[in-house]
Write the structure tokens for this entry.
Amino acid sequence: MTSPILYFVDDLAEGVSTGLAEGVLANTAEGVPVNTAEGVPAPAVPYHRVDPGAPQITVTDLSVTRGDGIFETAGVLHRDVQALEAHLRRFAASARILDLPAPRLEVWREAILAAVRAYDSDEPGYVKFIMTRGIEGTGVPVGWAYVATAEDFSAERGVGIRVVTLDRGYRHDVAKTSPWLLQGAKTLSYAVNKAVLREAARRGADDVLFVSSDGFALEGPTSTLLARYGDTYATPSTDQGILAGTTQASVFDWLEEQGCATEYRQITAAELPRADALWLLSSSRLAAPVQELDSMPVVVDTEMTARINAALEARVS
Amino acid sequence: MTSPILYFVDDLAEGVSTGLAEGVLANTAEGVPVNTAEGVPAPAVPYHRVDPGAPQITVTDLSVTRGDGIFETAGVLHRDVQALEAHLRRFAASARILDLPAPRLEVWREAILAAVRAYDSDEPGYVKFIMTRGIEGTGVPVGWAYVATAEDFSAERGVGIRVVTLDRGYRHDVAKTSPWLLQGAKTLSYAVNKAVLREAARRGADDVLFVSSDGFALEGPTSTLLARYGDTYATPSTDQGILAGTTQASVFDWLEEQGCATEYRQITAAELPRADALWLLSSSRLAAPVQELDSMPVVVDTEMTARINAALEARVS
């Protein structure tokens, strides 16, 4: 297992001074923090490397006290970040929903790619990048990119996963009627997304598919639903308070290249047992076929799953 | 403004070793960290003081990455913690809802009181105590008590606050039907509770009262509703996925001593404009009278508000 890499992003958002100009710790090209106040010229790179095992966050950071921030997790394969532009776009969209300063995507892109270069391993990994609202009262966001080795998901991709449907509690149209509920943003307030996995484990399952209180299939806590009916591959339309799936977008691109029909639409929970195949798609696990939904068997299309995952693994950013 | 105080809690939960016995940094009676591995006897006090301005949390702590943890905020007045036992009970209840190890309340009580003693000021303050699920993969929670000076809420208590009702998106009975949504726990996943305050500000208001998707008044993002109808003081019953208010409990105790009728019941949103008086109750701001609800004026009972706040300020733990 390769050691994790942590890069803090110094000039991370529009209209925000993070103090770099005044000479706080910045970095040299070698990634060693230097104090620019001590006569060292300002560095060309707006990020700096730190020890991921050491404390880096204060207890007054709003990520800690309020889960107030946004994140993305992208796959790292062949020393490259998968679907980086899609993740950056979604990161910016999440910032807008949370009224955070707009992240400087050119800076984030550079910092993320530098962190992945420093990871320096052929082992499959992931990069998680986070922007918090920062220390309470400062109005200055804090952000970083963290690269680490991914779990081995070969069993999930091969045999499949057992999934239970759980009520998300919201109507499917809640993002339109109540935008303050932040549905459709990838926020750090993910305690519910962890709680549902514990509920799934209690029910003997591996993962969860959220359904709306009015009966529509939504998404997993960290994944997008893909359902095949006949020759058509469908995913829930993103006007239902769910995330636009980055991995699902790649799968749709590939399916369309293969001449398969794809569609975004409302999928009712009642339709799910009639699907010819179901997958949960995510950045790190990629396409995991559903072998069981609410304790009922679902046919796993082993060949198609392997083809989808091969296509996903072949992506370059 | 008195400097904030930060105490980490070392022996914080049942069935969990935080490494104190193996000689990690602990503290002496003077609060100076010492290394017990270096021959210094294990300390009698299971907490240690650290610099609140220095980073203390790693980026892999689940509070940061998932808002996965619990907290309480209690008022500090006359160098004492208000309603500490009620806050400790609610802290333990939140831990149960999140399947966290049970906090050792006797340890937390001692650490919190020590931090408040170290705060050493007559200025009104607050103590926020947090237990996170800890660094991902370790299963060892991390916790601390942070004491700081409170905001001055005299205007809010005197003139009153402007409040808007916002849909919480959930039915009133969601905690019973879908406990995995963690309603009724005070979690670190509070991004929505901050987002609604921004929405309130956009509407020219100071605070929010959540209503359920099926039309029941619930609670504020960090407060409990108190409504007077005739001679009866009512608060929403806590079987509606809301927190048991610690300040509201103190107010009910005092009202009953005064011979006033109190009740827990369902209060519909439609009933709110007919209330004879409305307050939002919380640990730091105490009783803030509502002077405007959804842009409609509400009568402020200045005398009763002053009496309630005097009673709240007179509490000892």
